[in-house]
Design a protein that fits this description.
single chain, 296 residues, alpha+beta, five-stranded mixed β-sheet, 11% helix
Amino acid sequence: MCPTPTPAGRHWDGSPRITRHWDGSPRITRHPRPLRVAATSPSRLLRAGHSGRCRQCGNRIDLYQRTDQRPIALHPTELTADHIPESCRWHLSSGIAHPHGDGSAWCRIRHAVLCPHRTPTCRTSPYLEAIRRQLAVRTRRLIDTGAFAPAPPASSRPAPTTDGPDRPVVQLLLRRYLAERPVEDLRCVAQTRHRHRCPHPVLGPTGPTGIWKLLPTGPQRGQLALPDTLMAVYDLGRLSYGEQLRWRTRRCTAHATAPGAADLTLAGWEPFDPLLHAAHIHIRLPHPPPRPHRSG
């Protein structure tokens, strides 16, 4: 029979050992617990990575992915479902936004409905109009204090520094996606051990890369036939499944083999639709993106 040693910080009977400060108050010691993302979770994005700011009004928004993998900006707080039209109700389940209520007395709503710089996308009520006025006052306060500057219109934005598209169409895993920035500027979304976002690009200094091709636009499922137009696509289909999955999850080569690392922001891939994203169709091939240099 082996004796069981007394755990540190406890008496022989298992009761906690309480130490006290100089004034007699109890000293409470809390040991931090490491948190991990569950392997079965459909989203690896941390709660801190959902928050952002609207580029048009400056108010806080929460970014989530829908069931079709498209991002959506939601109002950061829950609202009473009785005051929200059914067509505007959203709810969250396992980090995924669903376009309907869940039967509870509370729901989420798209920020586009409440943004004071946009036209409401659904029928509003006095309750929603009051929230829009509150956000408009907050926007004016942010502008007056210099904490926010509205985004310039698309016509006045500076031209991209590369000859490639600012939002290229990328083909991987038998699907086409619209990237949020040029291929060479796609940055890893994983969290480092110091709890900062990884600074390395997805396009590594070594290893296989994609090829720019002119491919037909092709209609989406359920759409009518489109004109036979060729567009520039950054094709990753010739890469291995593991490499394509690394691009899909937007991980650098170092974090591709770190399944326990969480994400600090959305991957930013939007399923490409030739009708919705007609402005991002380019009919000429750009030069291949430069590969980043190794840091010595």
